[in-house]
């Protein structure tokens, strides 16, 4: 009997071949992948958080399944959040996941990030426009104003935060840089001066994929990432950049030197999009649900880390 007359055997051979190929690919991927998840790059830097043991993680209601931005709020463990389709802002208790209140601020657009400066709230749109309003307790509907920047949809701006040291908003594009150069392995963090309302044409800080790869892979190989959020540590002034593409968080100093790298676990943060600190220096990261429940994860600051605020 020929092989063609044994369909079950043929199916078994094909299946075996697929398994061998898949297994081989998985082995290659594993052996070429990073061996660690935490990288203390600066020997003089004391990282303030234990990413192996988050202090708390809460599921969010369905209205926030596509949560895309976070900023700190007036109550220490509360945050203000936005999701990327509706012009609604949510005040969320990070320890319970409950929405304490919400208010309308604009039309339904593609909103990606949030920043707060006292009572002023800034909402970043994907095309770089910044919608802003002055929060008034009890007010449920706002007519936000729009500040246009030099960014556009080609940049796909995703993260925004307030930098108290320079009284500016820091903005990170996910895709193309503001003024593209040949160095497409560098991701810029741009600054918008709140006094002049002007955007600096060149990045104030940057994250270098080759510098990350040198640490993670131990050789000159870029670690591919696309930033999705940014925050400034209120106690140290360090800049934290997270990326959902690459599932990574990179901590840089004010000269863009890498101080810490955390490879984020998908089981904890499926699609990290939002990041912020409270005034005490505790860290909050939000993740979209990607078909499941969105979450906010809390990382309490270590007792000995960064207790004195920078001048």
Structure description:
There is one protein chain. It is built from two helices and 21 strands. It is mainly beta and 311 residues long. It folds into two domains: 1-32; 39-299, TolB, C-terminal domain (Neuraminidase, 6 Propeller). The strands form five sheets. It has a five-stranded antiparallel β-sheet with strand order 1-18-17-16-15, with helices on one face. Strands 2-21-20-19 form a four-stranded antiparallel β-sheet, with no helix packed on it. Strands 3-4-5-6 form a four-stranded antiparallel β-sheet, with no helix packed on it. A hairpin with a 7-residue loop joins strand 20 and strand 21 (295-299).
Could you outline the blueprint of secondary structure elements for this entry?
Blueprint lengths: L6 H26 L5 E3 L15 E4 L7 E6 L5 E6 L4 E6 L5 E6 L6 E7 L2 E6 L4 E5 L10 E3 L9 E7 L4 E6 L12 E8 L11 E4 H8 L9 E7 L6 E7 L2 E5 L5 E6 L8 E6 L5 E5 L7 E5 L12
Antiparallel strand pairs: 1-18, 2-21, 3-4, 4-5, 5-6, 7-8, 8-9, 9-10, 11-12, 12-13, 13-14, 15-16, 16-17, 17-18, 19-20, 20-21
């Amino acid at each position: 009997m020929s092989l063609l007359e044994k369909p079950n055997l043929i199916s078994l051979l094909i299946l075996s071949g697929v398994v061998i190929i898949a297994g081989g690919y998985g082995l290659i991927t594993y052996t070429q992948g990073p061996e660690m998840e935490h990288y203390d790059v600066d020997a003089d830097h004391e990282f303030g958080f234990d990413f192996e043991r988050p202090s708390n993680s809460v599921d969010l209601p369905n209205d926030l399944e596509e949560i895309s931005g976070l900023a700190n709020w007036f109550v220490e463990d509360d945050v203000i959040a936005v999701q990327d389709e509706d012009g609604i802002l949510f005040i969320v208790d990070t320890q319970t996941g409950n929405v304490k209140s919400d208010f309308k601020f604009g039309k339904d657009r593609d909103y990606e990030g949030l920043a707060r400066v006292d009572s002023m709230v800034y909402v970043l749109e994907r095309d770089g426009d910044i919608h802003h309003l002055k929060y008034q307790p009890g007010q449920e509907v706002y007519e936000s104003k729009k500040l246009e920047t030099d960014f556009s949809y080609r940049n796909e701006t995703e993260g925004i935060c307030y930098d108290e040291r320079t009284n500016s908003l820091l903005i990170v594009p996910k895709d193309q840089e503001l003024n593209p150069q040949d160095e497409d392995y560098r991701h810029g963090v741009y600054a918008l001066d709140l006094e002049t309302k002007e955007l600096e044409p060149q990045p104030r800080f940057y994250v270098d994929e080759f510098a990350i790869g040198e640490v993670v892979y131990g050789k000159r190989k870029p670690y591919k990432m696309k930033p999705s959020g940014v925050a400034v540590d209120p106690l140290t002034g360090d800049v934290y950049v997270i990326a959902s593409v690459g599932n990574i968080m990179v901590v840089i100093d004010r000269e863009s030197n890498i101080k810490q790298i955390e490879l984020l676990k998908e089981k904890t943060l499926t699609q990290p999009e939002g990041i912020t600190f409270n005034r005490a220096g505790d860290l909050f990261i939000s993740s979209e649900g990607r078909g499941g429940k969105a979450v906010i994860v809390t990382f309490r600051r270590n007792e000995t880390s960064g207790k004195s605020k920078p001048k």
